[in-house]
Write a structure and sequence with these properties.
Udp-n-acetylmuramoylalanyl-d-glutamate--2,6- Diaminopimelate Ligase, Chain: A, domain 1; alpha/beta
Amino acid sequence: MKVSDLVEKYKLKVFAGEQVLDNEISGGYVSDLLSDVMGNAAENEVWITLQTHQNIMAIASLKDLAAVILVKGLEPDEDTLERSRDEGIPLLGTDKGTFEMAGKLFADLNSDSNQ
């Protein structure tokens, strides 16, 4: 599954990173603790979080994540948008809660791997 597929299927808002929506997604990671993501997220995963500050993009870049999804209608800081553009990692948003978004992503990724 590509990030663009996720954007289209769930009507995610693209805050930044439109040019790299073809990133392949290998899985997902859910956490709001930066050190947890830094220690445990894997390359090409989508990170689901409610954090909106620019440090999320530094971690996303460090871990080579496919995209970051902000939940609950949260909006990124301007510094975060700039960092997303600089790092070339899509920054997305949804009104869905963390539990719902993670569940949908999990179901989709598991159905793709079972085909």
